[in-house]
Amino acid sequence: MSEHKYEKWIQKDNVVIDGIDISGEWNKMYEPREITEYDITGLENVRDLAGGESMGWCYQCAQCIGVCPVDNVGSYGPRKIYRKLQTGMDLFTHDDLWMCTTCSNCLRVCPKEVDMMKIMPAVREQAVLNGNVPAELQEMLQNVAEYGNPMGDSARKRVKWMKKFDEPVRDLSKEDNPQPVDVLWYVSDYFSFHGRGNDAAKSMVRVFNRLNIDFGILGKEEKCDGDSQRLVGETGLFEELAEHNGAQFDKYEHNKLVVSDPHAYNAFKNFYPKVTKKEYNVEHYTQFLAERIDDISALMKRPFPKKVTFHDPCYLGRHNGEYEAPRTLLKAVPGIEFGEMFRCKEQGYCCGGGGGGMWLDGLVADHTTERLSENRVKEAIEVGAEVLAVCCPYEVSRFEDAIKSTNNDGKLVVMDIIEILDYCMGNDDAEA
Q1: Which among 411, 381, 416 has a CA at the least distance from the CA of 395?
Q2: Is 76 exposed, middle or buried (0-12, 13-18, 19+ CB in 10 A)?
Q3: Of the candidates 337, 382, 123, 358, which has an alpha carbon nearest to the alpha carbon of residue 261?
Q4: Which top CATH class is 1-132?
Q5: How crowded is the C-beta side of 185, counted as CA atoms within 13 Å?
Q6: Burial of 231 (0-12, 13-18, 19+ CB in 10 A)
Q7: Nearest to 123 by CA among 81, 162, 163
Q8: N or C: which end of the chain has fewer CB within 10 A?
Q9: Residue ranges, the chain, pLDDT below 50
Q10: Contacts of 7 by beta carbon, 8 Å cutoff, 6+ apart
Q11: Using one digit for the tens of pLDDT, what is the confidence trace for 125-175?
Q12: Helix (H) or strand (E) holding 338
């Protein structure tokens, strides 16, 4: 803390210094705006954490603020957090800790590489250990720990979506002597338990079967991928899930792991190997299907004459660099009128579900003018889209809710890309 005290200067009408006349309005001196007496303990506590070091690298250029999706509907961003930490904020107990969606847009533009994708999980981990967890998030974590999914449903219900569904699906957990499969499909929580997710899961099965993919699922032995739980600071729970799912991947012989969820893709590709000490041959389903685009095009029987735009999932796009696979599939759809939103690809806007945001709408609502998903739906409407295409299980429910809350019912429909492909291949149950 500086001992220096600035003098308070006043304007003088006539001033000559070292023979130079500096009289006039322009020589007015103000008290300096620099903060010279403050407690940076909060900043130091963040910087002392493994993963939190880069918080101290911020030099307040504020490039992050313009691209922060939360600042777009409130007041947020790494630079603002840094300034609050400089002036006494305790991030470990503050709501700002839970507002970050870890979308990675700030890191994309930061010249100092202040990495909120490391900082926030590190601080949250300590907050979890201290018991400072929002109630709505605590409920989700308890459900995952006890039932293996955020909804708190029995593991037996993970395959309930397959009842009265005639398409063949190999549930490897039910086979006495399971034979190898080419593709092990990780279905994910929202495809398994959420109603609209069930629609997409069934579409995936139909598309796989039409392409003659040799695939199987883990059934009741599948558990939550754990990526969101890792991001909210529950490192121990993430490691338990990684060990469990990793054991299932080892148990059933397969050539490729295909996932429905970009968060699962991120976990299996980048973070499971740190726990299981094994690398996984994993692809998001859009990548897997884009490699078979000629076969898919040959199977599409009817057009989809709609104005369609696409929302890039943060964890497929910015986190893992995949922008083209979903667009390859969409652009192959017959009759489609595809157009981008203003914020797309590297500059795509976040749906609000990442980094634990899927379960924090209540807390976030206290600090923002609207949900991120509502902001995004308005953008889709503005570009004239009739269909908002997605490829992340979080997004159908988030955007469908946002359509209702922004009074845009009947103007926009949300569909997973796999549902669009399924419709064009002749599924009469799919709606165009």
Answers
A1: 416
A2: buried
A3: 358
A4: mainly alpha
A5: 24
A6: buried
A7: 81
A8: N
A9: 1-4, 6
A10: none
A11: 999 999 999 999 999 999 999 999 999 999 999 999 999 999 999 999 999
A12: strand 337-338
Six-digit token string for 386: 């009739």
Tokens of 97: 């800790």
For residue 122, the SS3 value is helix
Q: Contact, 337 vs 127, CB < 8 A?
A: no
**Where does 291-428 have alpha helices with state H?**
293-299, 324-331, 361-365, 372-382, 393-405, 417-424
Contacts of residue 26, defined as CB under 8 A and 6 or more positions apart, other chains included, come to none
In 3-state terms, what secondary structure has residue 370? coil
For tokens 């003098």, what's the residue? 7
Q: For the sheet containing 387-390, what is the strand order?
A: 337-338, 307-310, 387-390, 413-416
- 1-132 and 297-424: same fold? no
Exposure b/e, 150-186, CB count within 10 A at least 16 = b = bbebebeebbebbeeeeeebbbbbeeeeeeebebbbb
Cα separation, 376 vs 399, in Å, equals 8
The amino acid present at 184, given as its one-letter code, is L
Q: pTM of the predicted model, to two decimals?
A: 0.89
CB 201 within 8 Å of CB 260: yes
Dist CA 8 CA 389 (whole Å): 60
CATH 3.30.420 fits 297-424, yes or no: no
Are the C-beta atoms of residues 222 and 248 closer than 8 Å to each other?
yes
The reported pLDDT for the residue numbered 170 is 96
As given in the structure block, the two tokens for residue 185 are 């499909």
> How deeply is 287 buried, as exposed, middle or buried, from its count of CB atoms within 10 A (0-12, 13-18, 19+)?
buried
What pLDDT was estimated at residue 15? 74
Two structure tokens written together for 278: 């094994």
Return the residue matching tokens 């490192």. 235
Task: Please tell me the distance from the alpha carbon of residue 352 to that of residue 343, in angstroms, as a whole number.
Answer: 15
In the prediction, which pLDDT does 24 show? 65
Say if CB 231 and CB 102 are below 8 A apart. yes
- Counted residue by residue, the chain has a size of 432
Is the CB of residue 172 less than 8 Å from the CB of residue 217?
yes
Q: SS3 of 84, please?
A: helix
User: Residue 257 and residue 199: Cα distance in Å, rounded?
Assistant: 21
Radius of gyration of the chain (CA): 25
Domain boundaries, the chain: 1-132, 137-290, 297-424
> Do 168 and 158 meet the contact criterion of CB atoms below 8 Å apart?
no
- On the CB side of 120, CA atoms within 13 Å amount to 27
Please name the CATH architecture into which domain 137-290 falls: 3-Layer(aba) Sandwich (3.40)
